[in-house]
């Protein structure tokens, strides 16, 4: 599934389903994964059922499942042309606000 035309709720649900599939592929129970991730069983169940969780919960589960590498490309700036790289460079330079002139 591509997330391009999905609603936020659909994306969250899909992520929960994918994490459940990863857990099952590793033959882990929800209780075992919750303990490994340092989470309550309810937090893990909520994540798997509808994707609702904190960012920390998502990272803990990904870490416990050995999926941190999957997060490596998340939100990485993708530079596709020299012009785009130059634009990013201009934006990333520190800018100072103009000084106020004394009247």
TrEMBL record:
One of its GO terms (molecular function) is DNA binding. InterPro entries: Cro/C1-type_HTH (IPR001387), Lambda_DNA-bd_dom_sf (IPR010982). SUPFAM superfamilies: lambda repressor-like DNA-binding domains (SSF47413). The keyword DNA-binding applies. Signal peptide: none annotated. Keywords: DNA-binding. It comes from the Bacteria. Residues 19-71 form the HTH cro/C1-type domain. This is DNA-binding protein. It comes from Lampropedia cohaerens.
């Amino acid at each position: 599934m591509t997330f391009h035309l999905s609603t936020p709720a659909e994306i969250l649900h899909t992520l929960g389903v994918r994490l459940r599939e990863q857990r099952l592929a590793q033959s882990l129970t929800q209780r075992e994964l919750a303990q490994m991730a340092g989470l309550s069983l309810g937090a893990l169940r909520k994540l798997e059922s509808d994707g609702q969780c904190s960012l920390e919960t998502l990272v803990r589960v990904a870490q416990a499942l050995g999926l941190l590498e999957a997060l490596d490309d998340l939100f990485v700036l993708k530079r596709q042309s020299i012009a785009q790289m130059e634009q990013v460079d201009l934006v990333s330079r520190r800018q100072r606000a103009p000084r106020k002139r004394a009247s």
